[in-house]
Design a protein that fits this description.
This protein is of the alpha/beta class. Helix content is 40%, strand content 25%. It has helices at 15-19, 22-29, 45-59, 72-88, 141-145, 162-170, 191-200, 213-218, 221-229, 235-246, 249-255, 270-276, 289-296, 304-318, 320-324, 369-382, 397-406, 416-432, 443-451, 477-490, and strands at 34-39, 65-69, 95-108, 114-128, 133-138, 150-154, 179-183, 207-211, 265-266, 277-278, 283-288, 329-334, 344-352, 355-365, 386-391, 411-414, 436-439, 452-457, 460-465. Helix 3 (45-59) packs across helix 4 (72-88) and helix 10 (235-246) crosses helix 11 (249-255).
Length: 502
Amino acid sequence: MSHIITGRNIDASNVESEYFLPYQEKWILDDSMLRLAEKSVRIGWTYADAFKNVRKRLHHKKRDYLFTTKDQGTAIEYVETCKQFAQIYNVAKSIISHGIDEYKVPRFNDDGRDTGFTDVVKVGYIKFDNGSRIMAFSSNANALRAYGGDVGMDEYAFHPDAEALWAAGSGRTTWGFDLGVWSSHNGDSTKFSEFAHEAAAGVGGWSYYKVTMPDAIDQGLVEKINQVSGQSKTREAFLADCKTRARTEDIYQQEYMCNPRGGNSSIVPWMSITRCQEDYRIERVHFEHEQIVKDFGEFKENEKDARRKRIKDYLAQAFSGTLANIVRYKLGFDVAASGEGDLACVYVDEEKGGVLTNRALFTCRTEDWDFIEAVVFYFMDSLSDVVGAGDETGLGRQICWRLMQKYPNRFFGVNFASKKSEMGTLLMTQLQGGEKKFSKHEPDLASDYYAIQKVYINRKWVFKNGKNQLNEASHCDIAWAGGLSSYAASQKIDGGYSGSLC
C-alpha cells in the first residue's frame, strides 16, 4: 500500500486515524508483548508495521527491531518503506546510515547452543542516532539469536522452519522485548495455524487480530487504494477481482478469508506463482514414443551413431536460440522411462544476478533409454557455461553416473528419494522470493509448480506430487526438473562439491 502522507509530525495525535485504516491503527498503537494477526493478503499490514517501528525506534534509545520475513526481497523492501516514512516525517536526519550488509552470525544447534561455526547473512538495516536499529532478515533463526530487540515475523506461515524461528524469536521476550506475528494461512498444519487457534480461543497471552479481505474493504481499503492510485473501483468489483486472481475457492478461502485449508497445501501460494511468471517465449519440445520412432527410427546398436546424429541435428535446430546464447546456464534432468506415465524432462535455466529464468524445456514419454541419454548429453555438450543436476534415484542411476563421469564438477547426481525435502525447501524459497522465473505463455509450468503439495512433519517440510490441472502427463515432473536446476545453481564448482548428494 503506497503512502500518501506528506509533511506531518510523526507524533501527531491523529496521524494513525487520519492516514491509516482502523485495523492498521490498532496494530500501530498496540504494544502488547505478544501480538498475532490472521490477515488477508495485500491489505497493508506490513506497511503499517513499518510506520509503527520507525516511530518506536525514535522513542526508545538502543532498542532494536528484528524483522524477519520469507525472502530477502521482502526484507529489503521493508527497510525501504521504513526509510520512506523517515523522509515523509522529516526525521531522516535521525538516520545515520542505512543499506544492505553482510553479518557473520553464530550457528546454533536445535537446543540453542552455539556450535562454534558461523553463517554469513545479508541484512537490510537502518541505524538511528539514538543507537536504535531496524534490521530486516530473510528467515534465519540464527540471525535472531545473535541479537536482542523487539521481533516482527511477517508471513510466518510460509517460513521454511517456523519452529526454529519461533524458538529464537520468542526468547527475545524474556528480556522485556515484544513480538508480533502476522500472516495469511498456508494450510491447517503450520505453526502459525496452531498459534491462531490458540489466540482465537483467548489463551497464550496473545493480543489477537483477524482481518479478512471483506473486513478490510468494510473499513475503507478500496477507497484508500482509489485515493492513492487514481482508480475508481467499487467495493464489489474489487472483491470480484480478488476472487478471479485466487482462481480456486480453496485459494480464496485461505489467502483472503483467513480459513486454512487441509493438512497439505501448495508449495507456495498461487499469488507467489503468478509473480514468477513473465512475458517472454521459451524454446520447448515434447515427444511421445511413437513420434520418436517415426522421426529417428527404432534403436539398433549397429545404427546407434547415425541415429544419435539425427537426434542432435534436430535439437540443434529446435533449440537454436538457447544454444547460441553465451550465458550461464543451469540444467535439471528429471528421469523417467515410460510410454504412458511420468515425463522425462530437461529443464534449462539462465542464471543472472541470483535469479533463474527458464529458457528451454524438453520433455518426452518413452522407454527408449538411448534417446533420453542422447538428449541430455547433447544439452550438456552444447550449452555455454552449463552446470547440471539429475535424479540418480532408481531408473536414472546409470545415465547420471555416466554424466558425472564425463562432466566432473559440472554435473551432480542427486539421491532424490532421501533429499526431496531439502530440494523442495530450496525451490519453495526461490518461488516465494521471485528468484525462479518462467514464461506466462506456458501456463502448465505454473500449474506444475503449484501442484507440489507440502505438509510440515517432525520439523521439516514433506513434499508430495499433486495433479497438474493443465498437463495430465506431468506429475510435477517439470517442476522437479526445475528444482534440480536450482540445486545445480547452488553448487560450489571451484573446490566445492564433486560428487552426488546422497
